[in-house]
Amino acid sequence: MTIDNATFSDAFRDPDIARALVRDIEQAAVAPMRLMEVCGTHTMAIFRHGIRGLLPPTITLLSGPGCPVCVTDTLDINAFIALSQQDGVTVATFGDLMRVPGSFTSLRQEVAEGADVRVVYSAMDAVELAQRHPDRTVVFLGVGFETTAPTVAAAVLTARDRGVTNFCVYSAHKVVPPALDALMAAPDTRIDGFLLPGHVSVIIGTEAYRPFFQQFGKPCVVAGFEPLDILEAVRRLARQITSGRPQLSNAYSRAVSDMGNPLARRVMETVFAPCDARWRGLGVIPGSGLAIRPELAAFDAARRFNIAVVEMPEPKGCLCGPVLTGARQPTDCPLFGKRCTPMDPVGPCMVSNEGSCAAFYRYFT
Predict the structure, then answer these.
(1) pLDDT tens, 344-357?
(2) pTM over cut 0.85
(3) Do residues 149 and 204 lie in contact, with contact meaning Cβ atoms separated by under 8 Å?
(4) CA-to-CA dists, residue 5 to 12, 86, 230, 251, 275, angstroms
(5) Going by C-beta distance under 8 Å and a sequence separation of 6 or more, which residues neighbour residue 138?
(6) Domains assigned to the chain
(7) What number is the average pLDDT over the span 40-57?
């Protein structure tokens, strides 16, 4: 059966539609297939609504590198911590980063040692924090994909226009399409189809994935976040794989257009320029990062502070990297649920609300 967007909007939780979708999936998934949900919000929705248990055993769902905290490299985490140790600096961050372990400590531990680290809900909150405390330099930790980068860019432009010179951003932002290319090059990863991220796609549009699709010919479906959205995306992928007719399909057209949000991208591109970036599990991916442009260097914490960090190996036994590429499942990790728990995480996949290890721990233990 084909379900249009009008039906979706009226029947997200209709059990009859869900059953029909599951039947369609069972009929289509005649051979084993491995599907990756790229987005961490999809991962949590899949677990929260028990979608794995609805699917036939021929379908394996893999959690991808779509959790921004999880893919932030240890070098960047160490830089965040080093910034918090600077005299006269207040670090402003989203809450998930507080517990992510660096090589030797974490932001939460630094707070216990006297560091001034504030949890904020937006980059604009950090600008206002800087205005209230002109005697301190407020550094906002920019972590996220194309969804959050425009709001951080808008905060930089606001600070510039208001003359808030004690505000800056450490940009560890990343963009999604180059990571898909890197996944296809990963030696231990086999992916038959992709559930593409809904929130990111609102900004960049479906056509941003066209070069990837044309190069690799993998079935790709942009998916929303309601249970029926995800089931519909899986149904489309299963049909494409079985028929041997891959498509770049948009199952979230009520929010995602072909070209995305040009205004948001224009703001983002005013502040940021593409750069190479390190991803946990994927290494350095060319053109996958966002660096603050030279003309806005006054708002770039990486330029303002001379932070020297040393690359350290990942914790022994931690499989966050292979988990993020779909090569391993969280339960394959020897630390999972033992040395590594949400209360005492070893790796970032157990910290973030969008982390696959945290999802497995919450729903499978």
Answers:
(1) 898 899 988 888 99
(2) yes
(3) no
(4) 10, 51, 13, 8, 37
(5) 89, 90, 91, 92, 126, 127, 129, 130, 166, 167, 168
(6) 1-304 (3.40.50.11740), 320-364 (no CATH)
(7) 92
